[in-house]
Structures are given as structure tokens and as C-alpha cells.
Amino acid sequence: MTSKPAKPPVRSRCPACGAPSHPDVRPFCSKRCRNQDLLRWLDGSYSVPVVEEPGGADLSPDEDR
Ligand SMILES: [Zn+2]
User: pLDDT, tens digit, for every residue of 14-59?
Assistant: First the structure.
């Protein structure tokens, strides 16, 4: 007979950190990541990751010389 496990491990990954998801808090790997993702949803910036560049987005004035 085939020796397949009754419950195959879920191969989904945590959308927060990319680690293997945990059955208790899937698809996340931990409650921590779940909370982080939930906060992102509440913040309304889930699908729109804001990437602020450190150093400012000022145009280099030196180029005008
Ligand atoms: Zn995670």
C-alpha cells in the first residue's frame, strides 16, 4: 500500500516573511506575522507598499553647475 501521510504538510508560505506557514495561523508562519499582516490591512497600505528612499528625493542641485 502507499504510505502517504494522512495530512500532507501545507506548502504555502507566510506572505509576511516567506517562511513555511503554520497550520494554526496559516497562511502565516506565526501569530506575529499574522498580526503584522493584519496591521497592514488596517493601515490600508497592504497592496501599496510605500518605499521611501532614505536621503530624500531632491534633485541634485550640483548638476546645475
Ligand atoms: Zn512569517
Answer: 988 999 999 999 899 999 999 998 888 888 755 555 566 777 666 6
Q: What is the pTM of this model?
A: 0.47
> From CA 30, how far away is CA 60, in angstroms rounded?
44
The reply to whether 24 falls in a domain is yes
Number of domains composing the chain? 1
Question: How many A from CA of 1 to the centre of ligand 1?
Answer: 36
Dist. CA 4 → ligand 1 center (Å): 28
Whether 35 and 28 have beta carbons less than 8 Å apart is answered as no
Burial of 29 (0-12, 13-18, 19+ CB in 10 A): buried
Q: Give 20 Cα–ligand 1 centroid separation in angstroms.
A: 8
